[in-house]
Design goal:
Layout lengths: L2 H14 L6 H4 L14 H13 L4 E10 L2 E9 L5 E9 L3
Antiparallel strand pairs: 1-2, 2-3
């Protein structure tokens, strides 16, 4: 599976389906978080995503591109309360 497919599957399984059992597949314990309000590491991400999923987000990937081990995602996130965010994020994939 190429890097774009890995990140797409991560979004489908974790952000869209809310299945946190897949975090070990995609994330290392020393994961570095880009958001200063979220703790680093898999544990910090789990804390964030648990609260985030309670807001019933709908994620629409608008653009996904890759350059070697870097994958860039631009997506629209609509919460159940109608709030809309557009987010651009980069992932560095390592073995």
């Amino acid at each position: 599976m190429d890097n774009k497919a890995i990140v797409t599957k991560f979004y489908q399984e974790v952000f869209q389906a809310g299945d946190l059992s897949h975090l070990d597949t995609y994330m290392r314990d020393d994961y570095l978080q880009h958001n200063p309000t979220v703790k680093d590491g898999k544990k910090g991400f789990r804390e964030f995503i648990t609260g985030f999923l309670k807001m019933q987000p709908t994620i629409e990937i608008i653009n996904l591109s890759a350059d070697h081990n870097m994958v860039y995602v631009f997506f629209k996130c609509t919460l159940a309360n109608g709030h809309v965010n557009k987010v651009c994020i980069a992932y560095k994939l390592v073995n």
